[in-house]
Amino acid sequence: MCWTLIQTKPIVSVEWLHACQAQRRAVAYGPYRVYEFEVLNKPEELPMVSGSSSTPMSRSREGSREADHDEMKDWVHSELAVLRHSPLVCVNQALVDQLKVLQMHRRLTHDAHSEMAYMRAASAIKAVPFSLHDWDAAQLQQIQGIGPKVALAIRQFFEQGSMAEAEAIQADRALQTMLQFTQLYGIGPRTAAQAYQAGCRTLEDLTRRGQTRLSMQLGPKESLALLPDLQTKMSRTEVQALVNELMHDVRGLIADAHYEIAGSFRRGAPWCGDVDLIITGSSWSPEALSLLVQRLHAAHRVSHTVSLCRRGAEGAGDARLGVDVAEVVYVWDCRVHRRVDLVLAPRDQFGAALLAWTGSVTYERDLRRWAKKKGYSFSQGGLVRMADGHLVPAPSEAHVYVTMTVH
């Protein structure tokens, strides 16, 4: 592996290619970067394996480069995703992608234990800032989150160029169809499998039979009309432009409204399937979101409301505490429909709401595990001290991390 090359070659989104094509020249890549690798400093020695008294973690083959020492210094070797780095694109990305194929297969076949194992392994590998190509199965198992079975699958990937099972899954048309179904809003693996067994082969079949959450709420006819728009991914530029327009309406109700775009957008994804918008302001009230949705409907900016509800703070002594959430279909540019989740949070819970809607799934699970260990309950509704049910003020993410001593 040439680490110097990885550090100097920019990783950009496909929007850069579109810009080059439109201008018929190689444009500056700065605005299109999706990940920046840090320049690492050389450590004096390798970190010790967790539970080992004297043996540092090392490569199995001779000829390991000195650069590997530099890379290992930046590696946070932890069981929990909340305590380690998680880049959008990692050095072992091809390996992570194949592990995710196995994870999704286990999800479709309702093997929750195995699904969790592959999910944790993929997350752990994303945090490793160097190639695992030369690591044998025994060394791979020293990484927290990788067991014997996954270690053997990783060795197969590096020795044969791919995992045989992952290739078989990708070639299985039935599994790929069900996987496509799960990309639709509100479709889980069980519903996808039932729909396939009932004869559904396309997203249109699924929607026509009223199997999707949208079709159950809005009816098959309306859902089919919306399907082409809602299937289309949005670029980061489009997401930001949509939010700018939407916030103009929000500030007509909440003058000092502050917002952050969460979800895959905040995690750095170049394309997004929907928009998760977290909003707060001093004039927040329990009725504010309902009034906002009514105004957006009246202005023909929202065509459909899928749901409007309060998400409570788990474990809080007062059941009324939490955040308000509206799942809507937003009319963008007067003609295009996009799915938007509007989350209106009190100022002192904005940070917790932002964390909860940012993801990823593994990160959120581990954040909840860490919170429980520290005596708290973390949920979309806020951070609650379990001893007395007190909702802890969390106006920023930093407040959440400091409260739970996450460094």
From TrEMBL:
UniProt keyword list: DNA damage, DNA repair, DNA replication, DNA synthesis, DNA-directed DNA polymerase, Lyase, Methylation, Nucleotidyltransferase, Nucleus, Sodium, Transferase, Ubl conjugation
User: What enzyme class is recorded for this protein?
Assistant: transferase
Any one GO CC term of the record: nucleus
UniProt record, GO biological process? double-strand break repair via nonhomologous end joining
Positions with biased composition (Basic and acidic residues):
59-69
Identify the residues that the record assigns to the Helix-hairpin-helix DNA-binding motif class domain, covering every copy. Answer: 138-157, 179-198
User: Looking at the keywords, is Transferase present?
Assistant: yes
Annotated region Disordered: the residues are 47-69
This entry's Gene Ontology molecular function terms read: class I DNA-(apurinic or apyrimidinic site) endonuclease activity; DNA binding; DNA-directed DNA polymerase activity; metal ion binding
Q: Which residues cross the membrane?
A: none
Q: What is its EC number?
A: 2.7.7.7
User: Bias regions of kind Low complexity — which residues?
Assistant: 47-58
**Which domain of life does this protein belong to?**
Eukaryota
Q: Which reaction does it catalyse?
A: a 5'-end 2'-deoxyribose-2'-deoxyribonucleotide-DNA = (2E,4S)-4-hydroxypenten-2-al-5-phosphate + a 5'-end 5'-phospho-2'-deoxyribonucleoside-DNA + H(+); DNA(n) + a 2'-deoxyribonucleoside 5'-triphosphate = DNA(n+1) + diphosphate; 2'-deoxyribonucleotide-(2'-deoxyribose 5'-phosphate)-2'-deoxyribonucleotide-DNA = a 3'-end 2'-deoxyribonucleotide-(2,3-dehydro-2,3-deoxyribose 5'-phosphate)-DNA + a 5'-end 5'-phospho-2'-deoxyribonucleoside-DNA + H(+)
Q: Where in the cell is it found?
A: Cytoplasm; Nucleus
- What is one Pfam family matched by this protein? HHH_8
Nucleus recorded as keyword: yes
Q: Where is the DNA-directed DNA polymerase X domain?
A: 90-407
**Cofactor names:** Mg(2+)
As for what it does, the entry says: Repair polymerase that plays a key role in base-excision repair. During this process, the damaged base is excised by specific DNA glycosylases, the DNA backbone is nicked at the abasic site by an apurinic/apyrimidic (AP) endonuclease, and POLB removes 5'-deoxyribose-phosphate from the preincised AP site acting as a 5'-deoxyribose-phosphate lyase (5'-dRP lyase); through its DNA polymerase activity, it adds one nucleotide to the 3' end of the arising single-nucleotide gap. DNA polymerase that functions in several pathways of DNA repair. Involved in base excision repair (BER) responsible for repair of lesions that give rise to abasic (AP) sites in DNA. Also contributes to DNA double-strand break repair by non-homologous end joining and homologous recombination. Has both template-dependent and template-independent (terminal transferase) DNA polymerase activities. Has also a 5'-deoxyribose-5-phosphate lyase (dRP lyase) activity.
Q: Which family does it belong to?
A: Belongs to the DNA polymerase type-X family.
Q: What is this protein called?
A: DNA polymerase
Q: Which organism is it from?
A: Malassezia equina
